[in-house]
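Below is how a single chain appears once it has passed through the pipeline. First comes the sequence as given, then the structure the pipeline wrote out for it. We keep one example in the README because the format questions we get most often are answered faster by looking than by reading.
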Amino acid sequence: MSNVAQYDVVSIRNDFPILERSIHGKPLVYLDNGASVQRPVQVIRAIEQLYQENYANVHRGVHTLSQESTRLFDDARVKVRGFIHAACVHEVIFTSGTTESINLVAQSYARPRLQKGDEILITHMEHHSNIVPWQIVCEQTGAQLKVVPISDKGELEMDRFAELLSEKTKLVSVVHISNALGTVNPVKQIIDAAHAIGVPVLVDGAQAAPHIPVDVQKLDADFYAFSGHKVYGPTGVGVLYGKEALLKEMPPYQGGGDMILSVSFEGTTYNQLPYKFEAGTPNIAGVIGLGAAVDYVQKIGLGAIAAHEHGLLEYATAKLRQINGLRIIGEADQKAGLISFVLDAVHPHDIGTMLDAEGVAIRAGHHCAQPIMERYGVPATARASFAMYNTFQEIDVLAEAIQKTIKMFA
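Resulting structure:
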């Protein structure tokens, strides 16, 4: 599909059984996709089929079931490589999710290289998972964490980024799309500026991979991380992409299982990439489910998905701006399909509860991004986030439910 006119949202919705549910007697309107999307039947069936027909441990058996599971597992890595346009399959490391991927880089890449006086540069719009691992490694090494501020619109202050980027900077870690604001950051510009002085860059792509095409080679990202459950796959599985040269230099993150070639009490010989970073029995069903999710997303087309979600964003933004007492938090010029907002007289948690009574599922809270809440002087926001299966009619239901909430609290 190449454009919105060809986009068949009805057919897509038919692939998601959960969307047929009713909540409190109302049709489900699922707008909590920033936290986790729903799964199409194609993913559900792939996991079901594995357990019913093919399951065995991978890479360890010569019997038929093990060989079948191994083939499905390895095929999923090939699919992910194509999905993010990595140069080769051994640059794709399977993890438990974006959080583990970032922690892996913090401990395996950054920690051995950092010393007192070095700096790690992040931004004010990061998820906690792209803040805390760097705080930990700074405590371990004596390095310092520097933070690029954001404007009132929710955009990075790129002049301050240029000022903070220096010879002391040893790594830049930046979110591709903010989970709390929807801002699409200029990651290519950031990467190019960092590389100009020899600084590697990690990109948190958890919110980007399900919504826009990602080409890690064109971006020239050194590391790129995303999670399966945000890209229509299972929970408990994710991906760390890393450039081959960097991954080869990095020591293992954990020990045991597939990450070894041979073990004796005198020493251990580590396995080659990517297995060096995949200790223990992997999440076999999760990886195979992720492969099925990648197939599904690519069949629809990320370009078509992005166009559809942008249409939803524009429509919802116009609708919500008409509501008196509603303030949108984050209005960047380049923005993905989510809207964070507050109401003058209603706490976000109450908004979430009231909307649920109307069948509308949103997220209310700090979205694991407390520094952003502090930046805007709010304890929390309500967040409606869109996915490929959402409709313009659902935006109307959202707006009506918000209006009803305001009247009840007036």
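The CA atoms of residues 162 and 193 lie 8 Å apart.

See the next section for the split statistics.
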